[in-house]
Amino acid sequence: MSISHMRVSRSLAACEGALLVVDASQGVEAQTLANVYLALENNLEIIPVLNKIDLPGAEPDRVAQEIEEIIGLDCSDAIRCSAKEGIGITEILDALVTKIPPPKDTSKDPLRALIFDSYYDPYRGVIVYFRVIDGSIKKGDKICFMANGKEYVADEIGVLSPNQMQVDELYAGEVGYLSASIRSVADARVGDTITHYSKKAASALPGYSEATPMVFCGLFPIDADQFEELREALEKLQLNDAALKFEPESSSAMGFGFRCGFLGLLHMEIVQERLEREYNLNLIITAPSVVYHVICADGETVECSNPSLLPEPGKRRSIEEPYVKIEMLTPKDYIGPIMELAQDRRGEFKEMNFITESRAKIIYELPLAEMVGDFFDQLKSRSKGYASMEYSLVGYRESQLVKLDIQINGDPVEALSTIVHRDKAYSVGRALTQKLKELIPRQMFRVPIQACIGTKVIASEALSAIRKDVLSKCYGGDITRKKKLLKKQAEGKKRMKAIGRVDVPQEAFMAVLKLEKEVL
């Protein structure tokens, strides 16, 4: 489950109703649809709102019909609004009061409160946002978090109006915050249940699950002196984001850095952006990879996210990779290019249906590894920005996966190793070797650049040697004299090749990593 999906689902579980806000010019998008279904599963009262009606391209009547056809909600009294122009705001507030049902009165039951968000405050520790489902909570109560069993004293409880305002007690149906000298966000995870220490609830609220990283990549500082700054920045981000995992990693090509785990693509992009913007770090980011399940010959299953840690071919029986179910909403004009994109990424077609006369929903199942590169960018460019997508994990499946190694002058370069599907190995290997040939400076000896699966070379390029013209001083004369000079030069080159090292410039690594993100 992605970080946004988990937060949305827990937030919806803390509500009685929701506003369905749809752009009057864009219409329903895939993520909106996914969140509406989550709201319907939670039996929420949904109030449709058509926003941005002041735009020249707004078509509120068409969008209202689209909502009725796709979701099945009655939009005859949908509120038409524009936040920019201040239209319809009063009607929305009135609808919230009249249409959303009141919470049930369960204040006499044992305390059960749902955590739907939390953040780290440098002075007070973790501040927890929660909704009281059953019972009541007072300032000074000794409380317990049911998932991890940790106990705290509620030093401060309050409500948001909109700033934090302290109160003495919160009852069933109320939403508030608490501060209890909690040191880490990991101790107050989204979805956990708060109960009283002395009078524990019989069962926790449903829906809690541990956040497990699904996408991994390496983060290396361009300037090696920034390594400690990168460590501090990641530690500070982790204070507010318990789902972020990282461990030190070293590479012969890029020096010291960190292997980081993320819940999904959006989570990865946000962390990278924050590191660069808020902490002024210049980073090299390796191509993202996913967690593979490697079934070894002895029957043991090993999780592997780093190609360099993949067990040898003789020690593994098979490799399983994560698959996702992807739903794409698109205008009918772009169905062909989008289906072609999904087929190219090893997608399995599941179904397609027209949700309106002009828009279709296409469902595919495809490997997560094929999505972590530029899939979203390609989807947007092939549909001129009109298509949208939503994905969810469906499990692991066995695939014909191999480790693709890059060797330069016979030495493997671990930083460029990747795990790819056997059918794509040749095209990826060919692209990488050709790019490296362009980027690595010529040496005094011939340098072979090879893409290998195990010991088998599947693609190869070579940098020709820089040669001195040893025949320039020969003005005619016997051919044996020329052969002797050329033979002597060849022996020198052979000696150089045996002892020579090829230093791959950092620009080459950055260019190849960028290429890997495109071709994988």
Automatic annotation (TrEMBL):
Which residue intervals define the domain Tr-type G in the entry? 1-104
Annotated Gene Ontology cellular components are:
mitochondrial inner membrane; mitochondrial matrix
Reaction equations catalysed = GTP + H2O = GDP + phosphate + H(+)
Residue intervals passing through the bilayer = none
Which GO biological process categories is it annotated with? Answer: positive regulation of translation; translation
Instruction: Write out the residues that bind GTP.
Output: N51, K52, I53, D54
Which InterPro entries does the entry link to? Answer: EF-4, EFG_III/V, EFG_V-like, EFTu-like_2, LepA_C_sf, LepA_CTD, LepA_IV, P-loop_NTPase
Family membership noted in the UniProt record: Belongs to the GTP-binding elongation factor family. LepA subfamily.
PANTHER family to which the protein is assigned, alphabetical: TRANSLATION FACTOR GUF1 HOMOLOG, CHLOROPLASTIC (PTHR43512:SF4), TRANSLATION FACTOR GUF1-RELATED (PTHR43512)
NCBIfam families, alphabetically? lepA (TIGR01393)
How is this protein named in the record? Translation factor GUF1 homolog, mitochondrial
Species name for this entry? Panicum miliaceum
Q: What is the lineage of its organism?
A: Eukaryota, Viridiplantae, Streptophyta, Embryophyta, Tracheophyta
